[in-house]
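User: I'm putting together notes for a lab meeting next week and I want to include a structural view of one of the chains we've been expressing. I don't have a solved structure, so I'd like a prediction I can at least talk through. The sequence is below, exactly as it appears in our construct file.
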Amino acid sequence: MTTQSSIPPSELKRTLWWSVADGVLHALMLGLSESYMGALAVELGHQDTALALLATVPPLLGAVSQLLAPWLVLQVGSRKRMVVGGALLQALSHLALIALALFEIRSLLWFILAKVAFWVTGLVIAPPWNAWFGSLTDRVNRGRYLLSRTFACHFALLVSFLWAGSYLQAGRPTHVLRHFAVLFALALVVRGISSLTLVLHVDPDPPLSTSVPVKGRLRRALSAGPWKLAIAISLLQFGAHVSVPFFTPYMLRSLHMELDTYAQLTSITIITKALCLPVWNFITRRFGLAAAMSTSVAGIALVPAAWVWATTMPDLIWVHVLGGLTWSGFEYVSFQLLLAGTPKHISVEFFSLSSALAGVMQLVGSLVGSLILRGGADYHTVFLVSSVLRAVPLLLLTPVAVSLGRGLRLRRIWMRLVSVRPGSGVERRPMVDAEDDEDPAP
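Assistant: Thanks for the context. Below is the predicted structure for the 442-residue chain, given as structure tokens.
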């Protein structure tokens, strides 16, 4: 057995630097490819229902795939092998996206399959990667290291995202699909290099268990997890996704926005979301988790309504700032409550199940939005309906936050990047094995 304490300090230091490189390369991939899959779908002519399915089905299947992670680790022999293999397969999934763009393949099925391959290979390795990363950073100055790593990843994502938008705009009108193919090829390369950096990591991997009692842990997750909170969050996701899949076509089709302008506006949400975490930390300490939850959700409910009157560039800038500010607060508070309310031994199963529930509600919400549009309504109507539906979960979220927040010790939550969404910025998931307790909440 290899433990972290038995790893030579020089080897551990080298591994931690390779981990920064892996994070930066992964962020570059997100900025070059995942962030623009929706724009490619619009460019290929996919309509509202297709866009709704493309935005929700792959993340849903990715969340469900995480339940297979313990069994897959057992089959391949170690968490390192699984993570490296998954990263390499995610790199290769870009071959399908390159083909879609290069040969102008307009089949919805093939696009969904390509996105499913990308999301499943990326999310199924998250649980073993979290455990591996947690063991590597167990006895270092985790706060300082993760702060620098997180900053490097966000910076890489922002730069690649902005450059990709400018590069795509340079290809309009005749060569834009070819430029999409180039972006996906670059993403394949950087994710491939990322998988090589993972090979260079040392792995203080514990001995493999001879059995993986997944069913037992699933039953415990179903009975012991904070499901009232998870259900309330899923209802919010339902209301949000009535409009979320349609922000991109609204900007590109209805507002006739250039791709570089689209990238610049979305980057405002990314930056705002990253910068506002200290603000929500202060609000939570000063006024409590319930107040922070209510404020952030109320703001989230206002975002799509604000899109209705946002017709000038200054208006759109403020809408994107509002989206980044409010989603940042909701992310911070909900992760605090979920992590505190979930027993550690079932955290992987609970987060996978709750993510799957949220994914189902996102799918239903997006289909509701597409049905409204197919009924003859415009995007503005969908946005207003979404605002109303986003406000409803306040009736559940506020009392749940009051109940779970009593005596809760706030955690310094470190998160990994998952995707970029117009209107809400970077989608992040907590690294459940890399958190530190701080001070009690008021």
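A couple of points you could mention at the meeting. The domain at 213-442 is CATH 1.20.1250.20 (Growth Hormone; Chain: A;). The radius of gyration is 21 Å.

User: Perfect, that's what I needed.
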